[in-house]
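User: My collaborator sent over this chain with a note saying "see what the structure looks like." That's all I know about it. Can you take a look?
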Amino acid sequence: MSSSSLPKRVLLAVTSYHGPFYVNGDNTGLFYTEALHPYNVFRAAGFEVVLASETGAYGIDPHSIDKTFMSESDFAVYNDKDSDFSRALAGMRKAGDLAPEDYGLFFASAGHAALFDYPEAAGLIAIAESVWARGGIVSAVCHGPAILPAIKDAATGKSIVAGRSVTGFTDSGEELMGLTKRIKDLGLVPISEGAEAAGATYKVPPGGPFDDFSVVDGRLVTGTNPASAHSTAEKAVEAFNSL
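Assistant: Without extra context I'll predict from the sequence alone. Here is the result:
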């Protein structure tokens, strides 16, 4: 199917988990720029963008609201409740209320919170499966690939990542953040482990775990970390336009 026959509309998935995770007791939630930067890329490329979570609710990871990850322009958007992105967040939809056929590109933003809800987010998964079945693009960044093993290819019955190359937040990144044991203790599945169990080849960035790195394998586009959100979205747009 060519891109001209697919809706030029993105379902930008957001985690609905907003609860305790960090060792100090802080909540995790949406990693702000992992949704903001792709949103900006898609809008600039002429896509309509709809934000949705599994439950219709969301919360922001406080660790993501930091100058380490955000530019002055990002903070300006965050502090302006009338900005396009702020209004999009305020209008968050519930995935199950949406028509999957209305979307031609699925993009999973993240935050560690995605490890909690994405693997069983039936509404979001259904939209992604529909996009894939109709020849569209499925993309995810950082912990967003936690949803990919559950997205099935109707033609094979296997995950869409089976036999494909993907990336996502690295084990070394979790170690550097002091979160490896926390993830294990909570029974959460690291991105590399989930991908490989589903039959994917997991790609580690050639540089450090926080360097910009993304992987394109046909209609599947993945990125490693917050610094990769912009480039991953750009490559998803390129993949859509090349259909």
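A starting point for your reply to your collaborator: Residues 31 and 111 are 4 Å apart (CA to CA).
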